[in-house]
């Protein structure tokens, strides 16, 4: 198989990207979801600001809704100010990690065996490092990109952006002035497939859509009483029944454009029968490897029970029982989803949204998409970009509220055997050094033609 990956750095950005990613990982920016215990964002943001200033940028440091929730913005003027600016965003926070579970310390940023190891290596200090390296190179070399580039390194993505992207969009829209398009996570990574001729090909998945994310709190109320009484109106029983019905339910298959295009492109390439009406879609999807977990979850809405809470003593029937559902809803399905859910819950179950983030969808076309295709092809002639929908959510949800067209394109050329999906929030999260060098070259090509 032809490989276009080269280990020898050939630009200033490539020379320092590995070191930058490693240093970023060494900031423990664990986001626990609780502002009181979330840490490190300010220190990481100040360090990023210093690296940008060192190269000649003026930076803006903003705290988003709470002390220490650090964000950094910098602009690089483009050749044509009449064109809309391109936002390049990465989050600085990471999910927590338990050192005893890991082969190396999760905040070591160790560079071992051809990988940079640590929490955030692929989510998403890899992209932050690549963007930072390119931003520094452009400023130092006096590069003028075709349009204004806005670099944004933000807080709180891992808890939904309430103290990050959402706050910034609501309170500081001025920081996004003139921005029409954006590029961030989760896309641009390669998926190796075997084509009809039996050769290995790499598809690069570009995120053009995201499911909505909503957390629902369920409450059942009943009659409190002695645990020895005949059961009549028990809140725990009613809630447990509703939770079990939701958990066992399969929502209908609904094909959005992004998913249809992805399945079509993979079918063309591999000859696998990914016809959604076909008899064995999940069996064929599984042949794509672990990515099938994400793709499978974009074929229908999901509602997973994730928390249960009721009672305080073995012989007391409690008056109330609670549960939480993690719901992921396809674009256009919100009303139908809620109707279906209410039917499953049945009478006597109250529900309230504790978090509700809208789905997002754009089309896979236009100048920016052409620039992504060209950048991949320039550095991997065997590659092909395909659109896909992310089953989770990113800061794109917030930025799209400003009318910004968002994509996930953080390019990485991955070894076929690497279980990439499992590395997200996983143990021994790591990114191949070669993938970072490849990604930096692709992003460079992309930004110079954006
Ligand atoms: Zn992320």
Structure description:
By secondary structure, this protein is α+β, with helices and mostly antiparallel strands. 32% of the residues lie in helices and 25% in strands. The chain is built from 13 helices and 19 strands. It has a six-stranded mixed sheet with strand order 1-2-6-3-7-18. Strands 8, 9, 16 and 17 form a four-stranded mixed sheet that branches. Strands 12-14-10-15 form a four-stranded antiparallel sheet. Strand 1 (59-63) and strand 2 (70-76) form a beta hairpin. Helix 3 packs across helix 13. The longest helix is centred in the first third of the chain and has 17 residues, at 125-141. Residues 1-6 have low confidence and may be disordered. Bound molecules: zinc ion. Zinc ion binds next to loops. Residues 91, 123-124, 157, 185 line the site of zinc ion.
